[in-house]
Amino acid sequence: MTTGAVMAVLDREGLNALVAALTARGHTVVGPTVRDGAIVLAELGSADELPYGWGVELEAGHYRLRRRDDEAAFAHSAGPQSWKNFLHPQREHLWSADRSPEGTVRIRTGSAERPRYAFLGVRPCDLRAIAIQDRVLAGGAFKDRGYEERRRGAFLIAAECTEPGATCFCVSMGSGPGADAGFDLALTEVVDATGHRFLVRVGSQAGAELLAEVPHHASDPATREAAVAAVTAAADRMGRAMPPVDLRRLMGASLDADRWDDVASRCLTCGNCTMVCPTCFCTTTEEVTDLTGDHAERRQRWDSCFDLDFSYVHGGPVRASGRSRYRQWLTHKLGTWHDQFDSSGCVGCGRCIVWCPVGIDITEEAAALRDEAARKEPQ
Q1: 227: closest CA among 203, 192, 202?
Q2: pTM here?
Q3: Residues 64, 128: contact at Cβ < 8 Å?
Q4: Residues 202 and 258 occupy one common structural domain
Q5: 1: pLDDT confidence band, cut at 50, 70 and 90?
Q6: Quick check: is 298 in a domain?
Q7: Is the pLDDT of residue 284 over 70?
C-alpha cells in the first residue's frame, strides 16, 4: 500500500453511488459477479451485483464456489476471465468490403463504437497484467489500435487482495497483494466488528474527481490499520511460490531439459492456459465471405502457441510436438519475454494452474527445471 495517497472510506451505499456515478458518466461498469457456478467478470447495473458473501476453493485443475461466513465482496481469487477479455477481446472486426451490382467496392474499417469501460475490482496482479499488455499492444512501433482506444478510455478501480487462493503466487512475481500503481482508485475491503467498509486511495486526478461526487467519510486510523494488516497477512498466505532463482536465466539454460518430456506426457495442448492468462496476447486473422462473393470481412481472433498451426510455415509446423509447444510457452512467459518487453510475462495470478484440465502447475514445472539444472551442475 502506497503512503501519502488521499484516503477516504466508503460503505456499501457509497460503493453503489460510485457505480451509479460511473454509469452516469457514460462508462460501462464491469466487475465480478456470480454466474454459472463461478465468479465471472460481467457488466454491472449496481454494486449490489458484486459477489457479496462468496469465496472460492482453488487447486490445480479445481475451482468451486463456497459460501463465506461474512458478506465480503472481494474476498475471492481470480476467476476464469481477466480484463484482457474486454481490452483485447477474443474476436474483433477489422474491416469489411461490399461489392455493389455496378461492380464498385466499398471498404469499411473498424467496428462499432467501442464502450468506455470502468473496471471495478481489479486485482493488483491484474493491474500488472494490464500494464504489461500496455507495453505489448500499445507501447511499440506496431500498435493495436483497438486495444489502444479501449485502454485510453478505461477507468480502473483496484481491489487489494486480502484472501489469496491456494494457487496464487503474486508475491513471487512482485505483483501483489497490495496495489502500488496503475489505478484511478484503489479499494481495500475491511469487515470486522466495526462494520463493513472500503478504504479508498486516490491514484489519479480522474479518481479524485469521481470520489468527490459520491458520499464518503474521512479515513480513520482503525480502518487504515485494519486494511494494512489484511494486505500484509495476505502476503504471508500465498498458496504457491516460484523458486527463488533467476527464472530468465533458468529458462535459457533448460532448453534440453528432460522435464519437458515429463510435462509433455501430461499436457493436452488444449491452450486453456493461454486463454485464461491475463498477458497472453497472440492473435491471428481470418477472412470470411458470404455465398454471393459480394461481401467479405477480416476479423482478428485470439491464437495460441499450443495450436499445431501456430508455427506453420510452408512444409509444416515448426513446433510439431507437445513438448516443443509447452517449452515455447513457458520459456517465453518466464524468460524471453524479458528480452522483448523488459519484464516477465507472468504476474502470479494462478489461473493457468486452476483452469488446466490436467492440473499442470507452472510453479512446480519451474521448480522441477531448477532441480534438474542443479543435479546436472558439475560437482
Answers
A1: 192
A2: 0.93
A3: no
A4: no
A5: low
A6: no
A7: yes
Same domain? For 14 and 66 the reply is yes
Q: Are 247 and 344 in contact (CB under 8 A)?
A: yes
Q: Which residues sit opposite 64 in a β-bridge?
A: 57
Handedness of CA 13, 14, 18, 24 (dihedral sign): positive
Other beta carbons within 10 angstroms of residue 285's beta carbon come to 11
Extended beta strands in 60-102, E state: 62-67, 91-99
**Residues of the chain above pLDDT 70, percent:** 98
Q: What is the pLDDT of residues 60-85, one digit of tens each?
A: 999 999 999 999 999 999 899 999 99
Query: By residue range, what is the domain housing residue 30?
Result: 7-94+112-235
Burial class (CB in 10 A: 0-12, 13-18, 19+), 141: exposed
**Looking at the structure, do residues 20 and 61 belong to the same domain, yes or no?**
yes
Q: Are residues 198 and 263 in the same domain?
A: no
pLDDT in tens, 197-255: 999 999 999 999 999 999 999 999 999 999 999 999 999 999 999 999 999 999 999 99
Query: In Å, what is the CA distance from 275 to each residue of 84, 115, 223, 315?
Result: 10, 22, 38, 28
Q: Helix, strand, or coil here: 272?
A: helix
Task: Write out the three cell numbers for 238.
Answer: 500465498
Q: Which amino acid is at 234?
A: A
Contact 144, 154 (CB under 8 A): no
Q: What is the pLDDT of residues 25-66, one digit of tens each?
A: 999 999 999 999 999 999 999 999 999 999 999 999 999 999
SS3 call for 195:
strand
Number of domains comprising the chain: 2
